[in-house]
Amino acid sequence: MQPSLSVSPVWRRPVSPIACRFAEGTVDLVVVGAGYQGLSTALHAARAGLSVQVIEAGDIGTGASGVNGGQVIPGLKQDPELLITLFGDEDGKQLTRFAARTADVVFDLIARERLDVEHMRCGWIQAAHTEAALQAAMQRNRQWRAQGADVALLNQAEIALLIGSEGYRGGFLDRRAGVVNPLALVHELARIATEAGADLATRDPVTSLVRDGTSWRVGTRSGRSLRARKVLLATNAYSGLLSPKLARSLVWLHSFQIATEPLPPEFDTILPGRHAVSDSRRILVYYRRSPDGRLVLGGRGSMRPPRTAEDWVHLERALLRLYPMLSNVAISHRWFGRVAMTPDHLPHLHEPEPGLLMVAGCQGRGIGLMVSLGEPIAHYVATGDPGMLPLPISPLHGIPLNRFRRIGIAAHVAWYRLLDGLER
C-alpha cells in the first residue's frame, strides 16, 4: 500500500462556527469537557432550565468524540444475564434496559433535532474467528433475543456474504446498531446545546477545581473563574492532572485508524450492506465503509504517540488479511486518539465529593453510552434524585501500580497479538 502523509480523520469537514461564551458569577452546572457526555448533559440541563457553562481544553472534537470509529453499538461489553448477576435483579434489569436503547437515543436525536450528521443504521456484526468465540456469540444472541432485541446469529456462509471476507466461523448481528460521522455529531451537539442556552468556552483548560462551602470554584488557564453548584468532569481518558485519582482508576490506550481511498465498483462485495464490524480477537479490529465508499479500519496502537506512517502498519496488515484484493489500494488517512477502559470493562459513575460527578469507561460503546447518559445525569443535577441514573454511584478507587500500566499494557498487547496470530 502506498504511503500517505495525512494524519487526519477521513471525516474532517468544514463545520459551522459556534459562538464561545463564558458565564460570570455562579452557575448551576459547570461541565468540563465538550465531548458526547459533556455536551449531551449540557443540552438536557439547559433545557431543564439550569444555567450551564461548558469548558473545553481544545477545540470541539479534538478528543475521543471526534476521532473514534463512528460505530454506534447498543448494550455493554457484558450481556444481560451477567449484568443482573453483578448488579442484582432490579438494578441489573434497569441497566440492561438503558443499554438496550443507547443506539435508539442517538439515531432518534439525529432525526428529531434534524442534525447535520451523516449516518446509516445498518447494523453491527461481531465476527467470531474461533469456535469458542462463536459459542459466545450464540449466548449473546440468546440473551438479547430474550430481551426482545432485533438480533440474529450468523453462520459461516452468511457472515462471509455480509462482510465479503472468508475466515470467520459465524457471528452476532445486532440490527439496532449503525454508524455516524463522529466529528459531525459532536459539533451538532455543541450547536444545539448552545442554542438551548448553555455557554461554551474552548481552548481554555480548567486548571483548578476547589470545593468552597456548598459550591465549587472553577479556574481556567486564561485566568477565568466562576462558581458552580455542581460540576461534571466529562474528561474520561483526558482527566490527567485535573483529577489524578480518576486518571489512576482508568487504563488508557491509543486507538489507531486508517482509511483507504474510495473503493472502485469492483469491490462492492466488501461490506455490501454497509454493516459495521468488530471481530472477536483479543486485540480486535473494527471496520466499516464510509459514506463515500472508503474502507475505514481501526484497532489498538502503540502506547506512545505515532511518529511515522510505520506506526499504522499493523492495521494495514490486518486490512490485507481480511481483504487481500486491496493490496493496490492506497491508504489516504491515518489518525489516532486516546480511549479509557476500566479494569472490569464496565462504565463507572462517581461522586467523590458532593456536587462533583464523573463518568468514565466506554469499552467501544462510547457514542451511544455517553450521549444517552446526558439526560439522566442532567436530571440528577437538577433534582438530586438518583432514580433515573442507570448506574450506581460507586467509590473511586485507583488501580494499584497504575504508573507502570504502560509497560504492562504494551507487554499484554504483544502477547495477545501472538496468541491471535496462532489462532488464524
TrEMBL record:
InterPro entries: FAD-dep_OxRdtase, FAD/NAD-bd_sf
Domain FAD dependent oxidoreductase span(s) in chain numbering: 28-378
UniProt entry keywords in alphabetical sequence: Oxidoreductase, Plasmid
Name of a matching Pfam family: DAO
Top-level taxon: Bacteria
PANTHER family in the record: FAD DEPENDENT OXIDOREDUCTASE DOMAIN-CONTAINING PROTEIN, SARCOSINE DEHYDROGENASE-RELATED
The protein, known as: FAD-binding oxidoreductase
Species of the source: Peteryoungia algae
